[in-house]
Design a protein that fits this description.
Layout (H helix, E strand, L loop, with lengths): L1 E7 L4 E7 L12 H11 L6 H12 L10 H4 L7 H7 L2 H9 L6 H9 L20 H15 L11 H10 L7 H9 L3 H10 L12
Antiparallel strand pairs: 1-2
Helix pairs in contact: 1-2, 1-7, 1-10, 2-6, 5-6, 7-8
Length: 211
């Protein structure tokens, strides 16, 4: 698989081209809103620019492992069966295996591997807890929930941002790192919907600067 990552340092937009053409479901899991959410939440943590780039790559490619999961599972309108969940939960490891051999994406591969871990240790694939989960993955976990809940899915329509805020607050210390949740709520709530609005009507990515 050839992966081309494109980054615009001024606007924090990342885009990816994948060759050969991947499964139908992958486009549904690559959202530039999610990358922008991630980089906004990273700001209170004063990351260096190289770390921000690595975090952006990880956010963009977090679900690349879903190319190894059948479209029948990815696009299923109802609940997954236990057997289907076993297959779905393989995607972080698949993604890590894809990216791990690409030198400049190895830091992103760690985020891909750990983005489904939970702060209380009940996540997957390794059951990591607390600070054993990389900070980038702990940041991404919060905004991934925001993005998922406020986006249309095959099984439901997008929910209101307020509902996502409630979920994030409720699961602080369980699914999410309390420090990251505190940083999330230090950001004016309207900024999140403004980021989403900035992408509405975007029909195709703009290629600005290739690395």
């Amino acid at each position: 698989i050839e992966i081309v990552v494109v980054w615009d340092a001024g606007e924090d937009h990342f885009f990816t081209g994948l060759k050969p053409e991947l499964g139908q479901g992958y486009a549904d899991f690559t959202m530039t809103e999610g990358v922008s959410y991630t980089l906004r939440l990273a700001e209170p943590f004063t990351m260096s620019e190289p770390l921000r780039i690595e975090l952006g790559h990880g956010a963009l490619l977090h679900d690349i492992g879903k190319i190894g999961v059948s479209d029948a599972i990815l696009l299923k309108p109802g609940k997954l069966t236990p057997e289907e969940w076993v297959e779905m939960r393989k995607h972080p490891q698949i993604g890590f295996d894809i990216l791990g051999g690409i030198e400049f994406l190895q830091p992103a591969a760690e985020i891909v591997l750990t983005h489904q871990e939970r702060f209380d240790g009940t996540g997957y694939p390794r059951g990591l807890a607390g600070e054993k989960i990389p900070l980038g993955a702990r940041i991404f976990s919060v905004v991934d929930t925001l993005d998922a809940m406020t986006s249309d899915r095959p099984y439901r329509k997008a929910l209101a941002f307020e509902r996502a805020f409630e979920e994030i607050r409720t699961y602080s210390g369980k699914q999410f790192d309390p420090e990251v949740v505190e940083a999330f709520f230090s950001i004016p709530s309207g900024e999140w919907s403004s980021i989403r609005a900035g992408f509405s009507g975007l029909s195709s990515p703009r290629v600005l600067q290739a690395h």
